[in-house]
Amino acid sequence: MNNPPRNKAPKTETLLVELLQQQHQDRSPHLFKRGTFTLAWRAKVGSFPFPNLETIVSAAEPCGRFDWRSQNNVDRFQYHLPPPINEKSEAVPEYFGDLNDLVKKHRTLKLNGYIPGSAIRGIVRAWAMQRPELRREAIRLLGQQVNDQIMPGKIVFLDAWPDQTHPLTIDVVNPQEKFQVYHDNSEQPAPHALYALGDGLTPVPFTVAIRGIPGKASPEAVNTVWGWIEQALAEHGLGGRTASGYGMLESAQDTTSAPDPTHPVQRFDFTLYSQGVEGAIPRQIELRPSHWRGWLRSWTLRFLLGVMAERNAKVILEGLFGTLESTEDGKHRQGCVRIQLLPRKPGAPWGESSKLEESKSSGGSSSKQPNPDFYIWKGQIQMSAPADILESVLLPIVQIAMSVGGVGRGWRRPLHFFMGKDRNGNSKKYSRGTHLVFSKVGDSHLDELRLNQDQWKALYDRWVEAVRAKWGDRGEPDNLAAEVFSPKTCAVFAVPGPTEEPIDFDGTRSSRGNQQMSRSMAFARGARPGQQQSNPSSSGEAQRSSVIQWTVTSSEKTRGKGLDLVYKTSESKPPRNYKRNPDVGGKAAAGGSKSSFCSWVSIRRVDVPHPTVETETQEVVCLFLGGQTAQGYHPDRYQFLRDLGGIEGSQHLFGVPAPAQT
Question: What gap in Å lies between CA 562 and CA 493, rounded to an integer?
């Protein structure tokens, strides 16, 4: 039996745009507009030729009838035979079903990503309709449907295809709210897989094109809509899940505006030292925009649970951040808070990994410094929301959240390291924790919280007043065994910090001051890759080391008194079991098993000298006490509170004070 003829049909994709542009050049040359945009981070968009539960099909792709064929039959589909014969002979499509199972089979797929023209039109129309001065013009040019009355538009949006074919890749989202806030490990937060255009690392250029309908649209109308496209895509992004950072574009447009023009914007520079987080691909470490959204959402829930009933707290949280199914009525909610993660400069990466730096001995031989891997992320965070919510509700939460922890994996611990063994039994340093630095941009309002009890109380009291003014009385807080930030359910202390910083943050502590700047440190200082200094001058600044390196050999010197209290569990009298205790220090487990537990303690290193103990830094320790039982707080956490207050030089900043020492 002869093999069936292989499908040699041309791939139209961007060819369609070329053909339509040629047509307009002959008939109406001023009614066609096209341009190149660049996707900076993954986009949740459509796919061709295999439609599935997570993607949609291009209606404008002139390929004829879809056959729902499987990947194995992609090039053997028999177009010359009638459809029934094809349907009987084709295998069951591989791309239907549970995406969490598919991620094990298909890291990359023969699903070519594109942006449907209808999606671009929807973004542009929503952007224009939010601006009262543009609404009438938007309806005239883009059309409108009210019930059965349809007013056709004058502009056609073509599907946008990447300049080069990009198969969709598997991405994952990993909900953590139940696990981290409620310490519910009965259902570990299993990753949810989805398909996305882009790998999160490589920018993806794609072509956007529109055409005016001859006899209905003018060249001025085409230019007007094109201007809307440039602004709308820069501010909104494209595709699904844009509120979680998907679909962000590199743009020459001013992106300091909010998608809703009535919402103010706050912008902050950040530098984050972190051990990193893996996505769908093992050993591919990323800083994901969704980490920041989850960070703010979880902290907002912790605050709300302290001033109102749990059900009402969840309803308000959904109104702020959106949800697919509301607690109140089961309907979808859009949310009014928008968080965007922006590179410091267009085209620049967000972060780089530390490398084992090469050093030469006096004899000329090279060696590697035994540095553990960690990652340096640098960029900007932009937040927008209604003015009364952004200024009075969200920013106080951000101030406290950045004062007691970091973002992403290991956010509850300051950056430190410990000594362990590698596979060969050799000693090796392992990095843990994070170090987050925030600084405001322009007139953004974010003052660093000082280690002052009155300032912490005043900030929290203003926040409570703003919440009650906005949402009124929403009931008494429930007595939850969860992380609740309130004066009755948590305790915050400042204790002496580590005697030595874990890494050379500012380049002042190394004897290797004349070496070439490493790519990582150059990036952390704002230099672009390729701009590293190779010949430092003799000035004081240039004499600083430019090599990212750990500065000490003893892991204990990277721990302050708060982290030391968690680690030194067997040396105290009587012995404490804080480190791997699920009810205090948490317990890690490989693979997200049900033996994993979050720590109830969050610690952050701050660069503030201690007033009485000789350390240049301090640690801010936040202990969540959970709900009270008939016997009081959980005995292990209450004992940790007692020990925390007993540390020499400890200062109570907020919440439950330490009980008297006995």
Answer: 9
Distance CA 489, CA 491 (A): 7
Integer Cα distance of 295 and 194 in angstroms? 21
CB 645 within 8 A of CB 657: yes
Tens-place pLDDT, residues 559-587: 899 999 998 766 666 667 888 888 999 88
- According to DSSP, the β-strands at 277-278 and 338-343 are unpaired
Number of domains in the chain: 4
CB 171 within 8 Å of CB 240 = no
Give residue 420's region: left, alpha or beta (phi > 0; psi -120 to 50). Answer: beta
Residue 637, in any domain of the structure: yes
109 and 213 fall within a common domain: yes
Instruction: Give the pLDDT score at 510.
Output: 39
Nearest by Cα to 31 from 219, 310, 290: 219
Q: 10 Å Cβ neighbour count for 4?
A: 14
Report field, pTM of the whole predicted structure over 0.85:
no
Tokens in use for 73? 């039959």
In DSSP terms, 156 is beta-bridged to: 211
State how far the Cα of 371 lies from the Cα of 427, in Å rounded to an integer: 12
Q: Is 554 exposed, middle or buried (0-12, 13-18, 19+ CB in 10 A)?
A: exposed
Identify how many contiguous H helices and E strands the chain contains and give both numbers. 15, 26
Contact 541, 373 (CB under 8 A): no
Which of 204, 229, 250 delimits the end of a domain?
250
Is 483 a residue whose pLDDT tops 70?
yes
Per-residue pLDDT of 88-136, as tens digits, reads: 444 444 444 444 555 555 555 556 778 888 889 999 998 999 899 999 9
Range of the domain at 527: 504-549
Side-chain half-sphere exposure of 81, counting CA atoms within 13 A: 16
pLDDT digits (tens, 9 = 90+) for 611-662: 899 888 999 999 999 987 767 889 999 999 999 999 999 999 999 999 887 6
Residue 496: closest CA among 601, 613, 417, 414: 613
On whether both 222 and 140 belong to a single domain, the answer is: yes
Determine contact, residues 415/273, Cβ cutoff 8 Å.
Answer: yes
Residue 341 near residue 293 (C-beta atoms within 8 A): no
Q: How long, in residues, is the chain?
A: 662
Are residues 487 and 457 located together in one domain of the fold? no
**How many C-beta neighbours within 10 Å does residue 151 have?**
11
Query: Omega before 574 cis (within 30°)?
Result: yes
Alpha helical stretches, state H, 103-206: 117-129, 135-142, 177-181
Cα–Cα distance for residue pair 177/195, rounded to 1 Å = 23
Query: b/e map of 426-445 (b: 16 or more CB within 10 Å)?
Result: eeebbbbbbbbbbeeeeebe
Helix (H) or strand (E) holding 211: strand 204-212
Q: 3-state DSSP call for residue 162?
A: strand
